[in-house]
């Protein structure tokens, strides 16, 4: 198994990209565990963790002589080896736990967005800190001519669209 | 002892079976359908509160009705706040206090149906002769096997006529108890038929089911 993990940091968020390659002629179940000092912000589907993801990392299968590619975000600072990848024994007689049942069969709770008055629905105008930091960069940072032209074009278009509405 | 009443498809009679089995065993019935609860509810803490760590398991058990019951809340917000994994320790706590617990499991094969099977000492599969119900029942059976939860009996519900049940028993690998399509069960509404119509055939069959659970308990 060959593991290639890269990190990119932007706006207070570290993006971790992991590729696991296998030369085995059989599919290999693996666990990708976060080693950075912060929570895993895993990909979501309908507001819930995408299949295979949990608070500590990802569990999935590298296809025979193939590749598994996953990525997540974390507020933690990047480090030399951001993840640890281990083989998972898929042998029979597996010891189940309640958490393993949920990981395997899917979290049964209704998605956050389905619940009226939930955090997601009452967030209002505020944006998460990393987004705010990125927006500040865009607003005050030095703009290269290409970005400036693109932003001006968008601003002009918004202005055009707004005008008939105000008439 | 924890017995889970399961069986993939909705509407086959899981809740009715769980209620009647609990009545016959003098057990607590737990409504484990976190998002679409079926059994009657009442004021006070329910399973959502217990799983969200807002109430103790034993505190949420309602005594004094025809059957002791741990009801489940009906709100999505309650279901969202509940930690499904806490079901195992909840059932253990109720069993430690009351002896026998019968769990009314939700339909489907998601974790909310898987956890009651994982937490149980044994299970009962409920199905009808309907093809879809049988297929879903067999999937539930496979899930129970994965968790090493033994199948005590198959409840073949709403049986009309006298066709053999041998094929069903063979497919599931467990003895079948056939519950006849019964006015007594329908008229009992939310009450156990063993109390409403103790002389009915349905009541006798639920008695057989309870005996099967008892004999497994004493082994």
List the SSEs and their pairings.
The complex is a heterodimer of chains A (167) and B (219).
Chain A lengths: L1 E9 L2 E9 L6 E7 L9 E2 L2 E2 L3 E2 L2 E6 L4 E8 L8 E5 L10 H8 L23 H12 L4 H22 L1
Antiparallel strand pairs in A: 1-2, 2-8, 3-7, 3-9, 4-5, 6-7
Chain B lengths: L1 E5 L7 H12 L2 E4 L15 H5 L16 E3 L5 H6 L5 H12 L2 E4 L6 H9 L2 E6 L3 H16 L3 E10 L6 H7 L3 E5 L2 H6 L4 H4 L4 H18 L1
Parallel strand pairs in B: 1-4, 1-5, 2-3, 2-4, 5-6, 6-7
Please sum up the structure shown.
The complex is a heterodimer of chains A (167) and B (219). Chain A has 167 residues and is of the alpha+beta class.
Describe the protein's architecture and organization:
The complex is a heterodimer of chains A (about 170) and B (about 220). Chain A is α+β, with helices and mostly antiparallel strands and about 170 residues long. The mean pLDDT of chain A is about 85. The longest helix of chain A has 22 residues. Chain A has two domains: about 120 residues, Immunoglobulin-like, CATH 2.60.40; about 40 residues, no CATH class. Chain A has a four-stranded antiparallel beta sheet, with no helix packed on it. Chain A is about 25% helix and about 30% strand. Chain A is built from three helices and nine strands. Chain B is of the alpha/beta class and about 220 residues long. Chain B has a single domain, classed as P-loop containing nucleotide triphosphate hydrolases (Rossmann fold, 3-Layer(aba) Sandwich), CATH 3.40.50.300. Chain B has a seven-stranded parallel beta sheet with strand order 3-2-4-1-5-6-7, sandwiched between helices. In chain B, helix 2 links the parallel strand 2 and strand 3. The model of chain B has no long low-confidence stretch (mean pLDDT about 90). Chains A and B meet through helix 1 of A and helix 3 and helix 5 of B.
């Amino acid at each position: 198994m060959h593991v290639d993990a890269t990190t990119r940091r932007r706006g207070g968020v570290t993006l971790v990209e992991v590729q696991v390659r296998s030369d085995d002629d059989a599919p290999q179940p693996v666990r990708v565990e976060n080693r950075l000092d912060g929570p895993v912000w895993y990909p979501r589907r309908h507001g819930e963790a995408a299949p295979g993801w949990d608070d500590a990392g990802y569990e999935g299968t590298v296809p025979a002589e193939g590749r598994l590619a996953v990525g997540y975000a974390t507020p933690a600072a990047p480090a030399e080896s951001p993840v640890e990848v281990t083989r998972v024994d898929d042998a029979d007689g597996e010891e189940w736990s309640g958490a393993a049942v949920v990981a395997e069969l899917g979290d049964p709770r209704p998605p956050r967005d389905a619940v009226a008055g939930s955090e997601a629905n009452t967030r209002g105008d505020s944006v998460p800190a990393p987004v705010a930091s990125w927006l500040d960069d865009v607003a005050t940072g030095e703009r290269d001519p290409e970005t400036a032209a693109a932003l001006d074009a968008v601003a002009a278009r918004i202005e055009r669209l707004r005008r008939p509405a105000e008439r | 002892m924890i017995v889970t009443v399961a069986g993939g498809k909705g509407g086959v009679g899981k809740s009715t079976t769980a209620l009647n089995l609990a009545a016959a065993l003098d057990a607590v019935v737990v409504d484990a359908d976190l998002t679409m609860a079926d059994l009657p509810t009442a004021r006070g803490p329910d399973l959502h509160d217990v799983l969200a760590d807002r109430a103790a398991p034993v505190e949420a058990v309602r005594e004094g009705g025809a059957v002791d019951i741990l009801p489940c809340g009906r709100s999505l917000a309650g279901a969202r706040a509940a930690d499904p994994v806490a079901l195992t320790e909840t059932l253990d706590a109720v069993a430690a206090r009351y002896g026998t617990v019968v769990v009314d499991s939700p339909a489907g094969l998601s974790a909310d149906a898987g956890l009651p099977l994982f937490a149980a000492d044994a299970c009962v599969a409920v199905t009808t002769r309907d093809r879809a119900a049988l297929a879903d029942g067999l999937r539930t059976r496979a899930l129970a096997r994965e968790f090493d939860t033994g199948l005590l009996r198959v409840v073949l519900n709403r049986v009309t006529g006298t066709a053999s049940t041998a094929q069903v028993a063979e497919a599931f690998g467990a003895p079948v108890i056939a519950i006849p399509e019964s006015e007594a069960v329908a008229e009992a509404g939310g009450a156990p038929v063993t109390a409403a119509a103790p002389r009915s055939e349905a009541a006798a069959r639920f008695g057989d089911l309870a005996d099967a659970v008892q004999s497994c308990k004493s082994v």
